[in-house]
Amino acid sequence: MQPQFQMTGQASREVSLQQNKVLRNTFMLLALTMVPTILGALAGVQMQFSFMAGSPMMSFVLFLGIAFGFMWGIERTKNSGMGVVLLLGFTFFMGLMLSRILQVALGFSNGASLIAMAAGGTGVIFFSLATVATVTKKDFSFLGKFLFVGMIVVLLAAVANIFFQIPALSVTISAVAVMVFSAYILYDISRIVNGGEDNYISATLAVYLDIYNVFVSLLNLLMIFSGERD
After folding, report:
1. What values do phi and psi take at 194, rounded to 5?
2. Most exposed residue of 71, 132, 135, 190, measured as fewest CB within 10 angstroms of its CB?
3. Looking at residue 139, what DSSP letter applies?
4. Structural domains counted in the chain
5. pLDDT for residue 162
6. Three-class DSSP category at 194
């Protein structure tokens, strides 16, 4: 019986080491993705980048096509260095797309502080929920179905609001998005900690999208409630 217990304990330690390795690599790559995101955002702001601004619906569809193309490529190459290259290219693209809302924010007299507040709030949400997931090691996989439904509802409402442009709906979408994608941070980090995700490139992509959407939604809310025109 003792050799069996020893083998079981060794296997458990190996699994734990692997999970810690995936988590560590995910956090390191996540930090790296912020570099092309910032560079893309700065380039977009400087160029006053506008992604088919005259046709919001076509812009949205094209954005989804490019984004899903990148994500498909990342998943296909997630076990090689090309996965990292595609991920960094994707985050640069997302930085370019982010530049549009940053340009709008900078149109307010307190735009820079709004952006800083949104970034700070996103950081607090991420580190708080990541700490909960890593310290408690609780399995939050039960949230998956609910969060997926919430994400689809947010996406459909965002598409509808392209046509209707209802301010109250915009506020609701942003508020719900903050809650849904904050919960996704908890869910995705928990999956890594508990062995549900064993590839750090896929894990980084998931957590990056969570953080990105929380930041955009927070910035939207701050502009609506705290934006000051000159």
Report:
1. -100, 10
2. 135
3. -
4. 1
5. 82
6. coil
